[in-house]
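User
New here, explain this?
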Amino acid sequence: MPNVLSEQQIEHFHEQGFLPPIPVLSQAEIDHYRGCLENFERTNPNDIKKLKSKSHILCPWIADMAREPKILDIYEDLIGRDILCYSMAFRIKDADGRTFAGWHQDGAANPIKPILVIGALALADCSLAHGCLQVIPGSHKKSALQHTDTGNPDSILSRGQFISTNFDDSKAVNLELKAGEIGLFNAGIIHGSPINTSGERRIVVLVEMIPAHTEVRAHRDSAMLVRGVDTFHNVDVDPAPSQEFGPEERAAWRRATKKVGKNIFEGSPLPPTTVYGGQPAN
């Protein structure tokens, strides 16, 4: 028997590639996590981009978010009890009318088998005006489409990539979120998000989870066990942080994101960004 999802919800996820928003955080939890984020931003203004990948290694409060029982119950219903957190990735959009995500498939640049389930967790309301996630139902069942890498600095994506072949976007669904809700999607689904014109920040955390039996990839990757056991050991272990942004945490983060970068940027004409082990621009 599922923990929290109905059989219909589970079937919907596997057939359509996404789940509509589900409430998982209380107002007190929202206030706590948002307060921790804003404190991090005040304390480390030059390092905010580091939260875009593997942030669960950097801060105990982010690792706590990855272990929230209400969140993991949903993932267990979808991928089984033995769950690895691949990444906690903040996707924040200021109301600048510029930052966007072109239509893309995460599985095209970062294929993880058998499945990578991504949850868009809102720490503030995220409507269409805020630049919410949009998905194309059922598109996860097709092969990955051709993408073009642009390196566009206004793109929220690592390579500024977008799908450069024709596809039907007429049935796109807006995953509008209230603070404390999570909307889930298969990493292979076509998705994107428009610019933020709301006058408020969009604060979304991508909760990226994989089953422990995930296959070994082209370049060995890493993850953190958050529920159950890992008897497969197909990935290296992301260490749990003991302090916020400490020297050991930063070193572990650099090692882990460099591994991710090898997989994400393989075959790309662009070099890895600094978030993924690349060198700063001169």
Observations:
- The chain has one domain: 7-271.
- The CA atoms of residues 170 and 230 lie 41 Å apart.
